[in-house]
Amino acid sequence: MTDPRLAGLVQTLPDLRLLTDPADLEHYGRDWTRRWTPAPLAVALPSSVAQVQAIVRWARGAGVAIVPSGGRTGLSGGAVAANGELVVSLERMNRVLGFDPVDRTLTVQAGTPLEAVQNAARERGLAYPVDFAARGSCSIGGNIATNAGGIRVIRYGNTREWVAGLKLVDGRGELLDVGRGLVKNSSGYDLRHLTVASEGTLGIIVEATLRLADPPPPTSVMLLALPDFEALMQVFSTLRARLRLEAFEFLTDRALHHVVAHGAQPPFAETYPFYVVTEFAAGEAEEAAALEAFEHCVGEGWVVDGVISQSEAQAAQLWRLREGITESVARYVPYKNDVSVRISAMPAFLAETQALLAREYPHFDVVWFGHIGDGNLHINVLKPDDMAQDAFVADCERVTRLLAGALQRHGGSISAEHGIGLVKKPYLSSTRSAAEIEVMRGIRRVLDPDGLMNPGKLFDP
């Protein structure tokens, strides 16, 4: 412990677990972007709300910036500590605090993994329906801080819809209890919703009260092969009209190629340009409706092959083709775009974006997938082995500026569910007006007057 400022923190909180080993600094100082060299001052692992408050108050006095840290599975640089910040990891604050069977809410500490929340809800005969592939690694605090979405947004919405209340330690060290689980509350500004998607710039989320849902119905999973891009929205419209959709995901042949190379089972004897993985409520009537919808799509030329799961094991195998994409391309350290438009604008936006990427990335491997049912598209650009990282990122950022312009024309967002962080900060103005950004700066100044909470993220001071 070489920095003298840390002696004051140890004196203030002698029981605080504090890490300064270089390996720990590297591990806790970065997220999944891997684009910045981590260089935090230290890593604090508080075990209580009181410790978090004391850390923030010490940081104010010492002039040390703070980077809140959950599972660090983010893809926008929102949890990067590269400039001597104190990382405050909530991983030790991972307990279920309470369950209310009448209100059907579960209260958890912010470091609780998403999968643990899902399991706790299931043990109580209910469900926490927000779900995505990083469920075992990400934390509920990070989910709230980025308004995480995932594969079932079409049915259940984003994280925001399931937050009944939360507790936030703001940049002054004050504990704010916002929302309080009320279904109706018209007593002024909703600070709960303000905190959701704030990316740690207003404070550290320490606790959340989450709404729970009825257990999902039995479902079936269907994988469809499509001959061309134009068929995608026709298939979605057909299935949405005839089935109770739980999810509707799409991926390209390149995405499937990488997942199969990573160990997944090829679904068909032939390779097709595009695929859809969709999950829907199951039953005899629903299975018949699904078969009729499939036959209609085949008759229209929108679908050329398909399979419906006949067991939970087969359903999991089909889902792996979609959920395994991120892991299968991770070794390439891909440049990622996470964008959204209104579903009604999706056909025109997809056509323009497909042409844009084909023109600007002629020699790059571009892996597309996304939650088409809620207007969210993920674009992963893989770096060629013989290209320098700096040159690769610079070229990708050039194209992202063009993509941001297309999003602005179609009324879309540069960040659908990953947050802005460091990666997308230069493009925030394509989604938010100058007046909106100034309002956000003003709100931040009130809750974080010293500008110490996750500085440099989302927007500059």
From TrEMBL:
The keyword Transcription does not apply. One of its GO terms (molecular function) is oxidoreductase activity. SUPFAM superfamilies: FAD-binding/transporter-associated domain-like, FAD-linked oxidases, C-terminal domain. Residues 36-215 form the FAD-binding PCMH-type domain. The keyword Oxidoreductase applies. Its cofactor is FAD. It holds the Pfam family FAD-oxidase_C. Keywords: FAD, Flavoprotein, Oxidoreductase. GO terms for biological process: respiratory electron transport chain. Transmembrane segments: none annotated. InterPro entries: FAD-bd_oxidored_4_C, FAD-bd_PCMH, FAD-bd_PCMH-like_sf, FAD-bd_PCMH_sub1, FAD-bd_PCMH_sub2, FAD-linked_Oxase-like_C, FAD-oxidored/transferase_4, Oxid_FAD_bind_N. Belongs to the FAD-binding oxidoreductase/transferase type 4 family. This is FAD-binding oxidoreductase. It comes from Luteimonas wenzhouensis.
